[in-house]
């Protein structure tokens, strides 16, 4: 047996028959780590190999590895494999046998969206105009859809031309296409110290190098960005000026002007991710309005309607219109017209505004519960369904993630968003998964109780 076979030879002893198969695989992995059968640095089998031996789909194993990485159990390295991570001194002897409370996944709280969409889609199916939606359409989307959506996204600060707006399969699709346009394998991309985990995934798949830029309480620091531009010669910048993920920070107008000026000075292609701008009754000034000839502006209905409603928008500089149409042709042909039709009907009926009001109200209520449990969390003008929780000095983020997991609660480990090796001293807490505010209140109390104790004491009773 070769050394490579030894490192990759792990197989779970037993998979629970209860719950989703991917969670059963993650729980089995955590049990074997806790029992000492796997150690820090051990490499796990390739997705396809483990799937074949266990009789699972490759997608199930991939989802399990992704979940394990979000929990801080493993780390993946492009071209090398997936490895067991050090658990920062906390060893959980009791792994939850049921599906845990997932405060690691950012999602809206359940609301009226199912009832509204059910009625709306029922009307479409019963009407004579269903047939046209089932035909081939332009790669960029139906023109009427683009006109109405562009108008709904426009305001006094930023007017979006329908000819430059493209419908995509969610924001992730938009990010992927933009990176294909403005970067090639091996290029460097400027990002915040902590950045959106989905962007990290696309960058890794595209073989791009992420260059971390220092952040403060507003987000990316202009002087640090300037220094990074001078040092690396990178020509692409990705940022979330509004409700940054994972820290929920929002840039002031002055900071946005500084970032846009630096983009002009260093000829940067700007990728502006504004998927959470809808939480503000009046959208903060987009970078795209300050640097329209270099900014790729991204929004998503998946964040404000439902995660499974995979419709996003990408507004591009005029010089890139033809290239984006080609990429849409190559990657998706066109987005399912039913989704565009649903959005324009939601807009026309006023139901979309109704959903937005519900999202803002629910997010505010849940964020207030977070502030009650943890007064040190930053107060933000328009809360989303997540917050950035500072940790006491004696706690590392890995320790807290492990301690919460031992109590059946998942929170986002820093490795999901970190670009450089550094202890952030905080973790993201997502607030949308608990069924109601009462359940969220109870879960937050458990997290508060964990932090009242020293991590050594928590480890001793885990």
From TrEMBL:
Record keywords, A-Z: DNA-binding, Pyridoxal phosphate, Transcription, Transcription regulation
GO MF terms held by the record: DNA binding; DNA-binding transcription factor activity; pyridoxal phosphate binding
Taxonomic lineage from the root: Bacteria, Pseudomonadati, Pseudomonadota, Alphaproteobacteria, Hyphomicrobiales
Matching Gene3D superfamilies: Aspartate Aminotransferase, domain 1, Type I PLP-dependent aspartate aminotransferase-like (Major domain), Winged helix-like DNA-binding domain superfamily/Winged helix DNA-binding domain
Species assigned in the record: Rhizobium loti (Mesorhizobium loti)
PANTHER family from the UniProt entry: HTH-TYPE TRANSCRIPTIONAL REGULATORY PROTEIN GABR
Family named by the database record: In the C-terminal section; belongs to the class-I pyridoxal-phosphate-dependent aminotransferase family.
Record bears the keyword Hydrolase: no
Domain HTH gntR-type: 19-87
Keyword Transferase: no
SUPFAM superfamilies attached to this UniProt entry: PLP-dependent transferases, Winged helix' DNA-binding domain
CDD domains named among the record's database cross-references: AAT_like, WHTH_GntR
Protein name: DNA-binding transcriptional MocR family regulator
């Amino acid at each position: 047996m070769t050394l490579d076979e030894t490192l990759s030879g792990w197989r779970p002893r037993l998979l629970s028959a209860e719950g989703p198969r991917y969670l059963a695989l993650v729980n089995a992995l955590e049990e074997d780590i806790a029992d000492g059968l796997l150690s820090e640095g051990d490499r796990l089998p390739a997705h396809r190999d483990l799937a074949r031996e266990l009789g699972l789909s490759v997608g199930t194993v991939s989802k399990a590895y992704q979940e394990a990485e979000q929990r801080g159990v493993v780390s993946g390295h492009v071209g090398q494999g997936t490895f067991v991570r050090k658990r920062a001194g906390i060893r959980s002897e009791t792994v939850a046998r049921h599906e845990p409370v997932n405060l690691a996944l950012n999602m809206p709280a359940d609301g009226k969206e199912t009832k509204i969409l059910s009625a709306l889609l029922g009307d479409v199916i019963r009407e004579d105009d269903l047939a046209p939606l089932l035909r081939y359409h332009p790669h960029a989307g139906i023109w009427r859809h683009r006109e109405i959506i562009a108008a709904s996204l426009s305001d006094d600060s930023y007017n979006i031309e329908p000819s430059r707006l493209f419908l995509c399969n969610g924001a992730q699709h938009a990010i992927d296409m933009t990176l294909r346009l403005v970067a090639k394998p091996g290029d460097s991309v400027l990002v915040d110290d902590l950045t959106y985990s989905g962007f990290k995934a696309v960058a890794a798949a595209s073989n791009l190098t992420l260059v971390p830029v220092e952040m403060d309480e507003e987000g990316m620091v202009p002087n640090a960005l300037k220094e990074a531009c001078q040092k690396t010669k990178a020509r692409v910048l990705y940022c979330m000026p509004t409700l940054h993920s994972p820290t929920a920070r929002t840039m002031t107008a002055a900071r946005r002007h500084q970032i846009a000026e630096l983009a002009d000075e260093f000829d940067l292609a700007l990728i502006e991710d504004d998927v959470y701008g809808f939480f503000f009754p009046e959208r903060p000034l987009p970078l795209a309005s300050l640097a329209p000839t270099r900014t790729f502006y991204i929004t998503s209905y998946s964040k404000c309607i439902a995660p499974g409603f995979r419709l996003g928008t990408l507004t591009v500089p005029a010089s890139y219109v033809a290239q984006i149409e080609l990429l849409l042709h190559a990657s998706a042909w066109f987005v399912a017209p039913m989704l565009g039709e649903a959005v324009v009907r939601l807009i026309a009926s006023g139901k979309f505004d109704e959903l937005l009001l519900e999202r803002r109200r629910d997010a505010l209520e849940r964020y207030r519960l977070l502030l009650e449990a943890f007064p040190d969390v930053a107060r933000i003008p328009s809360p989303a369904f997540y917050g950035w929780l500072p940790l006491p000095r004696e706690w590392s983020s890995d320790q807290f993630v492990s301690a919460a997991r031992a109590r059946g609660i998942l929170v986002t480990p820093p490795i999901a968003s970190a670009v450089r090796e550094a202890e952030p001293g905080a973790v993201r807490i997502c607030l949308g998964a608990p069924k109601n505010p009462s359940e969220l209140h109870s879960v937050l109390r458990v997290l508060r109780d964990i932090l009242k104790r020293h991590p050594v004491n928590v480890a001793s009773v885990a």
